[in-house]
Amino acid sequence: MDVHPVLYDQLIAYAALELDENGISQVTTHVNECLECAATVHCYRQVRAFLRLDGMHAPPPHTLARTYAIFSHHRHLLNPN
Known about the structure:
Blueprint: H1 8-15, H2 21-33, H3 35-52, H4 61-78
Helix pairs in contact: 1-3, 2-3
C-alpha cells in the first residue's frame, strides 16, 4: 500500500499498547489491510517481548523518544512520500 493513513509513531504506540480506544480502532483497521504495517507491528512486539524476557524494566522516556525518532527517520528513508 502506498498511502499510510496511520503515522509511524501511531503504529509503534499501537504495538506498545499505548493508544486510546479511537486510536486502536483506526490503527487496527489499517493494520488489517496493510501487510507492511502488520509486519512492523509484529516485529516491534517480538523485539519488545524479547527485551522483557530478562526482567528488564521499561526504558526511560528519553530512550523511548530517541528510539521513536530513529525508527521514524528509518521509515522516512524507506518511504519518503
